[in-house]
Amino acid sequence: MSTLLRLLVTGTLACAGSSSWNGAHGQAADPAFKVGYTSSSEGRAPLLVTFHASAQPTYRIEWTFGDGASASGTQVQHTYYRSGVYTMQARLLDAQGRLVSRAQGTIDVQSGGPERSELTVLLGQGQVRLSTVDSVYYSPTTPKLQLDSQPVTDRPVRLSDGPHRAVSAGVTQDGRVQERALTFIAAPFTGSLVYENEVLRLTNVARTHGWNCATLKEGGPALPPLKQNATLDVAALAQSAGMALAGYFDHVSGLDGSTPMRRVQAAGMQPSLVGENIAAGHETPAQVVDGWLRSPGHCHNIMGDFTLIGLAYVNRPGSPYTRYWTQVFATP
């Protein structure tokens, strides 16, 4: 039986922020008034921004976002649906509503490209989860999901064997319905918790013993063990099951076109960094982990600065490689 290995480290969603939006107004200005924000480093519309401010608790903070919307509070969220440069202002008011201090700054929102509906299919044992993650709409629309013509949410749905049709749809800024539809096949497969636990154990042995990816032996810096994460397990299982059922071997899903980062986001996590190791055909956990450790890129994922891991082993006789292995790494 031939075997395959493949790896990917992809995508960052690092926070960007500012604490320099400090302004003063008159003699009553509060030097403790500081304003900042966090958002996706992509900076693309529709862009969700979290604004935060620090000030004395007796004061009230009012925000204007530069697009006609406003809010109040020490921490607020706002979505910029269209690209442009927006002037944000935060006003610090005392108990009588008098202006004490003011801070101002700009938010540069880039275009997210053409409006589109995305659809991610996370296959599991007898169930599926659908997601609209990475859809782009320049209006406050809520994308809808359907499975076999029935409305569903992003929660797991029981799935019978056979063909299924999934649809993601939303309304564009000019009122058109934008949708994406795809069909997929659900079929039985088996897994092994024992195998997955052994992959985790061997992976953490390599980390704690300081496996050196250059010399291919122990003796490098020891690293803390990775912690298994249930959300990453969902993304890993979707990849292993997708490869087994849809007949592809790639980090980009042949089922729905999703990347490792998108699958992790669809499973419910917003990490700063994601990596993925995949393998096919290996018969035992020892074989697959040894293969990964002796492949530089795979090894660097295992010995990287990740803190969390998801694991999935799928066995499907009759598929091209029968056995499919996935490790998903993430840093929150």
From TrEMBL:
The record's annotation in InterPro entries points to: CAP_dom (IPR014044), CAP_sf (IPR035940), Ig-like_fold (IPR013783), PKD/Chitinase_dom (IPR022409), PKD_dom (IPR000601), PKD_dom_sf (IPR035986)
List every stretch annotated Disordered.
Answer: 146-172
- Give the PKD domain ranges: 30-101
Biased composition (Basic and acidic residues) is annotated at 155-164
Tell me, what's a Pfam family for it?
CAP
Query: What organism is listed for this UniProt entry?
Result: Deinococcus metalli
* Protein name (record): PKD domain-containing protein
Per its UniProt record, what CDD domains does this chain match? Answer: CAP_bacterial, PKD
